């Protein structure tokens, strides 16, 4: 039996461990691919910690949620197999689900960038009736996904993008990356609400990476300041770095043309996802949208899990 190296989740309370496991065989209709690069995203960590809605129910399980791979014909592909695992020298994929990657694209950069970038790309392209010229508030714009959302919204034609976040240093860099206005989220709730009301009262779409109490405050501020109450406001829940739930008054939903929806794995059908990710891979490969990869070899998977990314960087395991 041929063996290979892999990173296995053996306990939700520990990082994945390097193990030697049997190499996979492809069933009819499947393909064995070589894994080149795997991003360690918040979702990748959450899945391995048993805290994500796609976490494996039984252990041990392969770690990793997505990967840049080399296919049997030598071409590159990007695959997303949330919950099934990608952190092994070889994995089995459905060939129809492999997103084509242009020759010459850098696997580590794509592995670092695809997950944060797809959050806003799929939201704007598939979840809301976003049109060029509309204005977008990115709530939680200083992380990798939030700052990519600023670039993606502009790339897709947003007329005005407002970036709101905690980290002042990172926030100050965002106008150079496309933000038309910035709002700092501070512990002073009145000041934060006033700044959001002034900058974002008339936005069309909110891409929300924070949720929790910060979102309750932001919703009150934006809805309370709106002058055109029947102008549609789509508030898209994408991330939960500030909490997993909110309390929402019925008044908020009745007093404005206000819709709340989510965007993520499970809320976008696979056909749309395939189409959009193919376009996104091409846009990233063309340059201008990148998260900086922080590489680790597979045999340092535990160190990779312990590493805390600096703003703008993403841990990537290279195989
Ligand atoms: N649904 C999807 O398709 C999708 C795809 C990708 C990511 N996501 C989700 O989006 C979120 C962000 O992912 P990421 O890749 O950007 O992670 P990241 O690069 O680690 O960034 C997280 C950011 O969150 C900020 N933050 C943490 N707590 C906060 C709070 N209470 N208020 C304001 N900001 C806070 C931190 O900013 P400071 O510098 O201020 O600490 C940090 O910059 C995660 O929940 C992730 O799971 C969803």
UniProtKB/TrEMBL annotation:
Coiled coil: none annotated. It comes from the Bacteria. This is Zinc-binding alcohol dehydrogenase family protein. InterPro entries: ADH-like_C, ER, GroES-like_sf, NAD(P)-bd_dom_sf, Zn-ADH-like_protein. Residues 11-317 form the Enoyl reductase (ER) domain.
């Amino acid at each position: 039996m041929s063996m290979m190296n892999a990173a296995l989740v053996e306990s939700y309370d520990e990082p994945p461990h390097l193990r030697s496991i049997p190499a996979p065989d492809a069933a009819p209709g499947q393909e064995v691919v070589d894994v080149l690069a795997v991003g360690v995203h918040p979702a990748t960590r959450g899945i391995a910690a048993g805290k994500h809605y796609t976490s494996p129910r039984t252990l041990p399980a392969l770690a990793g949620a997505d990967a840049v791979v080399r296919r049997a014909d030598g071409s590159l592909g990007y695959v997303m197999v949330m919950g099934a695992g990608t952190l092994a020298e070889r994995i089995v994929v459905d060939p129809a689900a492999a997103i084509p990657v242009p020759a010459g694209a850098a696997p580590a950069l794509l592995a670092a960038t695809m997950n944060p970038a797809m959050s806003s790309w799929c939201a704007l392209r598939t979840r809301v009736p976003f049109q060029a010229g509309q204005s977008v508030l990115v709530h939680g714009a200083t992380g990798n996904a939030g700052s990519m959302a600023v670039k993606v919204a502009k790339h897709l034609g947003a007329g005005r993008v407002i970036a709101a976040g905690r980290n002042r240093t990172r926030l100050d860099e965002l106008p150079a990356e496309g933000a038309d206005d910035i709002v700092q989220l501070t512990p002073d709730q009145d000041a934060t609400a006033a700044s959001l009301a002034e900058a974002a009262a008339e936005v069309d779409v909110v891409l929300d990476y924070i949720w929790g109490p910060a979102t309750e405050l932001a919703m009150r501020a934006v809805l309370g300041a709106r002058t055109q109450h029947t102008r549609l406001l789509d508030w898209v829940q994408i991330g939960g770095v500030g909490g997993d739930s909110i309390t929402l008054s019925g008044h908020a939903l009745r007093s404005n043309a206000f819709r709340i929806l989510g965007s993520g794995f499970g809320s976008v059908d696979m056909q749309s996802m395939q189409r959009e990710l193919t376009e996104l891979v091409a846009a990233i490969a063309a340059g201008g949208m990148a998260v900086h990869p922080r590489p680790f070899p597979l045999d340092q998977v535990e160190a990779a899990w312990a590493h805390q990314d600096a703003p703008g960087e993403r841990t990537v395991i290279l195989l």
